[in-house]
Amino acid sequence: MRAPVRLAGFLALLAVVACAHLSPAAGSEIRLRVMSYNIRSGNGNLAGTADAIRASAPDLVGLQEVDVHWAERSNFVDQATVLGQQLNMQVRFARIYQFAGAQPQDPPREFGVALLSRFPILEWSNHIITRLSTQESNPVPAPLPGFLEAKLDVRGVTVRVFNTHLDYRSDPRVREQQVKEMLGYIGEPSAPTLLFGDLNAPPEASEIQPLLERLHDAWPASAGPGLTDPADEPRKRIDYVLVSNHFQVRSAAVPATLASDHRPVVFDLVLRRIDRGARPATSILKRGAESLAASQLAAKKRVRKRSQLDSCKALRSPLQYCGCQPTSPNHTC
Hints:
- This protein is of the alpha+beta class.
- It has two domains: 27-272, Endonuclease/exonuclease/phosphatase (Deoxyribonuclease I, Chain A), CATH 3.60.10.10; 297-326, no CATH class.
- The protein contains seven helices and twelve strands.
- The protein has helices at residues 2-21, 24-27, 46-56, 79-87, 173-186, 209-214, 281-315, and strands at 29-38, 60-68, 90-99, 109-117, 121-131, 142-154, 157-165, 193-198, 216-217, 239-243, 247-253, 265-272.
- It has a six-stranded mixed sheet with strand order 3-4-2-1-12-11. The chain has a six-stranded mixed sheet with strand order 5-6-7-8-10-9.
- Strand 1, helix 3 and strand 2 form a beta-alpha-beta unit.
């Protein structure tokens, strides 16, 4: 009865191992809601901006046109920090422009993009791309910061997030250069990757096609036109969330709000958590079956050999039938 007991024990152990490898954490879905929003420096009502964001309850928000001690239009407040505090979210601000404060003791005046996150921000950078300054009367293309990159810990998965605001002018050449430079930072998205942005170009614009080939426009055609600008009577779709193929889009919406001159875009996404240590059930069971078969074969060989040896001794057959070679005249099996 020992063999059946051992077999039952082995199968029980195999089941435990298989279940351990196939625990929900190994391949469960991570749901998150994301928003991209050009806030137009709060549009004179930063509390209204916070309310518009809060109404959608996003986990991640990419903001464009954010003032930090910038001007009287925003009461010289640090809008990024204030929104982070009001929404109880982590915040990172990436300046595009920076000037000295009005008084020596005043903080620098800054304008740029920001990221709000309910997930831990592991690290972040403010990358330089080509821009035509909006602070000069006759600007020429020049390198300026304001392309934000961050790495987030999204429930155990590292997610790369980018936030950008591309040139608004009708000539697409600066946007073409900006897209080229951004792709250099993004690289091949082997890890889960999101890009938020006011691209100032419709989906069919040639200058953003290389970006749409690297990442996917999250807005599904079935959700309608997705128009965001201007907020009161939207006629253009220029605000985006782009995703790598690690994400599945579950829903998309453009909330109707006049808190800015743009409407936000909001997406419900699903990210598949992949446990690199986990193995498929078929692999586990196959290896278990192979191990079981090998154990059974070895047991059969031992039984066969023992039977041959017992028969050999009983019949006093020549040593070669005993499965051994003599090492001395007195050696027996």
